[in-house]
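Field reference: sequence -> structure
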Amino acid sequence: MGVKNHLRCGLTSSRAKRSNRFADEIASSPTRTNHKIASPRPAAGRSRNDANWGRNVAFPIFVIMILVSVAPYGFAGEITVAVAANVQYAFEEIKDAFQSQTGIGIKEVIGSSGRLAVQIENGAPFDVFLSADTDYPNALNDKGLTYGDPKIYAYGALVLWAMNKIDLSNGLAILVDPSIDKIAVASPGTSPYGRQAVRAMEYEKIYGQVKHKLVYGESIAQVNQFIFSQAADIGLTSQSSVFAHSMKGQGTWIEADQNIYEPIAQGAVILKHAQQNSLPEAKQFLDFIFSKDGRAVFEKYGYVLPE
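Structure field:
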């Protein structure tokens, strides 16, 4: 895969204008529909005083089942798609086009791939999973929670992004500069983009020097909030974020050298829940993802397409 750095600078009228626009976007963002499925089963030997534990675990799943059980008015059918946060901007266009062409409704749940995978393991009623890597879909497949094997739908890329006018021409080397106090990255524990951001810093042999500067977002969506609000001076995020219509022209960004981290292969898979409820609709959606129209949307947002 070729290496091509892009340097883009955007001018904004004021910081307040950026904040207002960002606030509007967050207010309408599908991340507000995320559901956190509860914690692991308690260890053996816990007292009967913990009888409420089962209800506490079951309730969030029950709520999700109610929320996704009724198809939106006007749609012949419906599926629920778990979407990795880096994909949310492209997904909005894919969702609109798919609904328009098929009459099938879509509900989406946006979050980090790791958290979505945990929710799926805990019984969340999702029909399709668009992950930010292939590890999580493959793990679910190994556990018998998918219908068919995962398939790569796109390759993501990392960018350095800052709201201030910072010279990014030297790539990640800017992170060691004393003027950089906080660096936003996604949590390596739940986000594939976070893991590759750390790998890139390790490859450049700067991770030890900047580790104390890192502020972790739960997902790429939260990393973008840190960058946009300037809670962090700079951040490593997905290239799809800076290609989003609402983010174009905001700040300064440069694509990270793709040779310093592993390719971010992103996998899609139909889940076992669909097999029991909406398999034809889920298959139609997955076919659309890999169709000419679907691939064109991913390419528009800076993803590299598989052959």
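Note: The chain has two domains: 7-28+156-260, 30-42+51-155+264-300.
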